[in-house]
């Protein structure tokens, strides 16, 4: 990984954080995702499970669906997915099926993460598709969005 790719990773993660803020403003868990092809944003999403009454409307899935429409193809080769929280098992499976080339995430998820924390689905060498997976990019900022959200929820319920 070069210094240039690190700077791009931080740039796109900042963008994903702005999308996480949109989720938060809608009362959703603040997770944002963006799919990039040749350093151009082609699709974005944020958690919308509550808004759409859809348990699959995670930020990653929303952005994968938009990217597939953009390419008119369910295969998203040569793309990078930036997401503020480590993907869950459902999202990891969809990412593998889409043939994403790189996944870059911010905060680790010890309870449900599928990129090394709880499970390691994205890096499992038994899959017929291998991808690059980088965690911890702007981790503190991504984690803060989530901890602030859940603290506020707990405080409201007291």
Lay out the secondary structure.
Layout (H helix, E strand, L loop, with lengths): L2 H23 L6 E6 L2 E7 L12 H13 L7 E7 L3 H10 L3 E6 L24 E3 L4 H18 L2
Parallel strand pairs: 3-4, 4-5
Antiparallel strand pairs: 1-2, 1-3
Helix pairs in contact: 1-4, 2-3
Word description of this protein:
By secondary structure, this protein is of the alpha/beta class. It is built from 4 helices and 5 strands, in the order αββαβαββα. Strands 2-1-3-4-5 form a 5-stranded mixed β-sheet. A hairpin with a 2-residue loop joins β1 and β2. α2 packs parallel to α3. The protein is globular and about 50 Å long. The model has no long low-confidence stretch (mean pLDDT 95).
Gist of the model:
The chain has helices at 3-25, 59-71, 89-98, 139-156, and strands at residues 32-37, 40-46, 79-85, 102-107, 132-134. By secondary structure, it is of the alpha/beta class.
Please tag this protein with its features:
single chain, 158 residues, alpha/beta, 5-stranded mixed β-sheet, 4 helices, 5 strands, 18% strand, globular
Order of strands side by side in the largest beta sheet? 2-1-3-4-5
Helix content: 40-55%
The H/E string reads: HEEHEHEEH
Oligomer: single chain
Tell me the strand percentage band: 15-25%
Low-confidence stretches: none
**Helical stretch count?**
4
């Amino acid at each position: 990984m070069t210094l240039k790719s690190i700077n791009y990773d931080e740039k796109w993660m900042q963008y994903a954080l702005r999308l996480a803020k949109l989720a938060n403003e809608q009362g959703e868990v603040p997770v944002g995702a963006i799919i990039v092809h040749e350093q151009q944003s082609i699709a974005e999403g944020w958690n919308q499970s509550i808004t759409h009454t859809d348990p699959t409307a995670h930020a990653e899935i929303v952005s994968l669906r938009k990217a597939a429409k953009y390419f008119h193809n369910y295969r998203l080769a040569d793309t990078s997915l930036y997401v503020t929280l480590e993907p869950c098992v459902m999202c990891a499976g969809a990412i593998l099926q889409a043939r994403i080339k790189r996944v870059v995430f911010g905060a680790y998820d010890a309870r449900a993460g599928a990129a090394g924390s709880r499970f390691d689905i994205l890096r499992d060498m038994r899959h017929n598709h291998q991808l690059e997976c980088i965690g911890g990019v702007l981790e503190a900022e991504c984690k803060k969005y989530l901890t602030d959200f859940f603290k506020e929820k707990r405080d409201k319920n007291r």
